[in-house]
Design a protein that fits this description.
alpha+beta, 12 strands, 15% helix
Length: 239
């Protein structure tokens, strides 16, 4: 179990337990039933929420639909619906397994995962080519946006902003224009990498070398290969 999983699990356990036990009949709300349900919720939370060391997790509960009329239930099972992850805005299922009428409801929750990442040191207009002076580190909610947060200054320096950002706004991959390592027609270094070896040669780029996008290169023998740009006029071929 990772160090920061416990606070997240405890918070999730408490919020689900509060909702679930509210629907239990009085005879089921004894210490034994409550302890069993608490352990079920705690197990789910520990298995589902496993952030890396150094991250801080907070869980905020939403509210069940007030129009719901739930029948008394002696056994309630919390579960994570298929396709839902304990990250950002999500939901947890609660289903009645033993009662006069079985039911299944969803509790909306927001899972916040705080960690250190890069933010704008000041307000920056669209098109700004980032320098080290434009960046600072701060704690942000990594789960607030599906786009990856930038943590390494080298991921941002030299890249331009697609839109204006405000001071203190976290920098995400989708805010930056893809880095172009070379233009079509330029001579590039090809590095063929395989298990235990690498071979270097030269070729001519047929398409621009945009970071993260495959590029086509014509080798000295005239063969056309596809690789990934990994640096200035450098393409890697995985064999």
């Amino acid at each position: 179990m990772k160090p920061n999983a416990v606070p997240a699990a405890l918070a999730l356990c408490l919020l689900l337990l509060a909702v679930a036990t509210a629907s239990l009949p009085a005879r089921a709300q004894d210490a034994g039933a409550t302890a069993v349900l608490a352990e079920q919720v705690r197990s789910l939370a520990l298995k589902s929420s496993q952030p890396a060391a150094g991250l801080r997790v907070e869980v905020e509960a939403g509210a069940l639909d007030p129009r719901l009329k739930l029948a008394p239930c002696q056994q309630i099972e919390p579960y994570l619906p298929t396709g839902f992850k304990p990250w950002g805005r999500t939901r947890v299922g609660l289903r009645c397994l033993q009662g006069e009428k079985k039911w299944n409801v969803y509790l909306p929750i927001t899972v916040k995962v705080y960690g250190r990442a890069l933010v704008a040191a000041s307000a920056l207009p669209a098109g700004t080519v980032l320098t080290a002076a434009d960046l600072r580190e701060a704690e942000i909610d990594l789960a607030a946006d599906p786009a990856a947060a930038l943590t390494d200054p080298q991921e941002a320096i030299g890249r331009s902003l697609l839109r204006m950002v405000s001071a203190g706004e976290d920098l995400r991959q989708n805010l930056l224009r893809a880095r172009q390592w070379f233009a079509a027609g330029e001579t590039v270094q090809l590095v063929a990498v395989g298990p235990g070896f690498s071979v270097q040669s030269e070729g001519q780029a047929i398409t621009p070398g945009l970071d993260g996008s495959p590029v086509r290169v014509r080798t000295e023998s005239g063969r056309i290969v596809t690789g990934l740009p990994v640096g200035e006029r450098r393409v890697e071929l995985r064999l």
